[in-house]
């Protein structure tokens, strides 16, 4: 490969010829005046893939020295990566092209990537050239994200980046009002964990850009992210339930039912013949993630021989951090879940016959009545509706997974077995999360068991 030639610096302006309307550039007679025009660097680069000669510009700069320094930086980068990157590619153009290339992602995951790009990165940084993006740009963005939906201090003025983010969210709300697909999901301040998940999107995108040699360094690697406080589950003891009934406030974000409360919930679902009762029973007893149970396939399930189920755990949100890409785990099924799955398969076959040619053969275990996949957000909404209808203290759909882990450990199942069943990336996470919860679950279960036995007056 031919080495890029040394560059030069010239002064240009945006004045236009009154007759042709074209920019005068270096021909403007006013350039000799102080403060008129800007300095630009230019150098000859190797021919691009189409064989055409290339002479990239860098700038504008206030001084000639700055322009020449930038030219030298560009030539150094060219030597390091083997060619001169296209300086005209903006962050907006690159990120949208990167999103279009993510063909194998789940729809829900792609939606979350697109939300991060359209609500945060493009409004705040989309005008920048990709090659000019630096870690301080990302740090400024995350400071602004942390201020969204938070009151400003007296005399404090929103930054330009925050103004852009607020405008983007206002536009998203208008689109939602007009019937378009919602992209704005949160009205509360964004947590540190949420900012980290947003950062993971740009980190992946810029990592791809580095592999393609569009940039020499990934600036996302050097950003100091906000610290996420670990949230451990708390148990809905009798005292906490009473307090919740009095105030309507839950003690913590992550709550776990006692076995009695979980049993009451499953009894309620079974008695009202809720269509998704087998799914809820499976999650409450085997600890599947929402995405795992929604995408589980019949071909990965053996109800008659090994009595196992295998699930694909993609990179979705969880308390122990991101999963490895396409990690598969297999776990055993108990007789109760096997019986429910067999009954569910018969129901699904009846729905297939009723749908006829309209049946969508997704191959998934849990589907809509027409065979199409269940949406993960629907599972969460449906679960919350059932909890409220049952009059039980609230937990999230994902907390059923914590319930399953707590019950297994309280029943004496080895910690390593529970960790493997849940698919935790680290055994230490299982121990750190549930060690303090298990005694409380066991104690609450003992107290609740004694409390339900009717006794005469003493």
From TrEMBL:
InterPro entries: DNA_brk_join_enz (IPR011010), Integrase-like_cat_sf (IPR013762), Integrase_catalytic (IPR002104), Integrase_recombinase_N (IPR010998), Tyrosine_recombinase_XerCD (IPR050090)
CDD domains per record: INT_ICEBs1_C_like
Record-annotated membrane-spanning stretches: none
Domain Tyr recombinase: 252-447
Positions in coiled-coil regions: none
SUPFAM superfamilies the UniProt entry points to: DNA breaking-rejoining enzymes (SSF56349)
Gene3D superfamilies on file: 1.10.150.130, Intergrase catalytic core
Record bears the keyword Hydrolase: no
Domain of life of the native organism: Bacteria
Keyword DNA-binding annotated: yes
Keywords, sorted A to Z: DNA recombination, DNA-binding
Pfam families: Phage_integrase
UniProt family annotation: Belongs to the 'phage' integrase family.
Protein's recorded name: Site-specific integrase
């Amino acid at each position: 490969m031919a080495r890029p030639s040394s560059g030069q610096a010239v002064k240009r302006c945006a004045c236009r010829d009154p007759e042709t309307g074209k920019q005068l550039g270096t021909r403007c007679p006013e350039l000799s005046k102080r403060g008129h025009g800007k300095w630009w660097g230019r150098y000859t680069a190797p021919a691009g893939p189409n064989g055409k000669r290339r002479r990239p510009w860098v700038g504008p700069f206030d001084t000639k020295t700055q322009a020449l320094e930038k030219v030298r930086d560009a030539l150094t980068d060219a030597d390091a990566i083997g060619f001169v990157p296209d300086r005209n590619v903006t962050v907006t153009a690159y990120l949208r092209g990167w999103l279009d290339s993510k063909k194998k992602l789940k729809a829900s995951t792609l939606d979350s990537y697109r939300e991060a790009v359209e609500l945060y990165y493009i409004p705040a940084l989309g005008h920048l050239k990709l090659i000019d993006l630096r870690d301080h740009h990302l740090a400024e963005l995350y400071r602004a994200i942390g201020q969204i939906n938070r009151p400003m201090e007296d005399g404090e003025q929103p930054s330009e980046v925050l103004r852009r983010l607020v405008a983007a969210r206002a536009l998203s709300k208008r689109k939602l009002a007009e019937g378009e697909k919602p992209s704005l999901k949160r009205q509360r301040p964004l947590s540190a964990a949420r900012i980290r998940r947003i950062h993971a999107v740009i980190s992946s995108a810029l990592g791809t850009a580095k592999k393609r040699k569009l940039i020499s360094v990934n600036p996302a690697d050097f950003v100091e992210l906000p610290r996420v406080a670990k949230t451990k589950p708390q148990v809905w003891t009798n005292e906490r339930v009473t307090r919740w009934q009095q105030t309507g406030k839950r003690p913590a974000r992550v709550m776990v039912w006692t076995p009695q409360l979980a049993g009451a919930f499953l009894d309620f679902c079974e008695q009202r013949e809720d269509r998704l009762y087998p799914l809820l029973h499976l999650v409450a007893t085997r600890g599947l993630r929402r995405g795992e149970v929604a995408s589980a396939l019949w071909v990965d399930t053996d109800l008659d021989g090994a009595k196992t189920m295998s699930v694909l755990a993609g990179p979705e949100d969880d308390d122990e951090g991101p999963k490895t890409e396409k990690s598969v785990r297999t776990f055993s099924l108990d007789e109760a879940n096997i019986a429910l799955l067999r009954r569910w398969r018969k129901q699904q076959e009846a729905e297939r016959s009723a749908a006829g040619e309209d049946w969508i053969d997704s191959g998934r275990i849990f589907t809509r009545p027409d065979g199409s996949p269940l949406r993960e957000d629907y599972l969460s909404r449906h679960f919350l509706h059932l909890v409220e209808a049952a009059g039980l203290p609230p937990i999230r759909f994902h907390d059923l997974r914590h319930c399953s882990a707590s019950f297994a450990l309280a029943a004496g199942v080895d910690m390593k077995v529970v960790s493997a069943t849940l698919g935790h990336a680290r055994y230490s996470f299982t121990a750190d999360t549930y060690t303090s919860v298990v005694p409380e679950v066991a104690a609450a279960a003992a107290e609740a068991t004694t409390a339900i036995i009717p006794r005469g007056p003493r």
